[in-house]
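Attaching the record inline, Q. Sequence:
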Amino acid sequence: MHKTYKDVYEGILSDRELTQGMMHNDPRAMAEWNRRMSGGEKPSPEYEELTERMDRGEWPAEQIAAKRKEFEKQMTGEEGKP
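Structure, as predicted:
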């Protein structure tokens, strides 16, 4: 039987540990929420990397800012400069 988004969401809400983690801004809880909401679909490599980092306790905003800074350095030719 295929679960609807409503079924998945209700399952998430009934998971006390997961909802507590989300309420306390735990990136691991958000990664788990994303996995459950994806319905088993294979994510893109970039999204998969973000999820793996969230599993390690990192927040995507920090990762995105670091990637943006890296890209800006490449575009301005400042690669390798401190």
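Residues 7 and 13 are 10 Å apart (CA to CA). The chain has one domain: 5-76.

More tomorrow.
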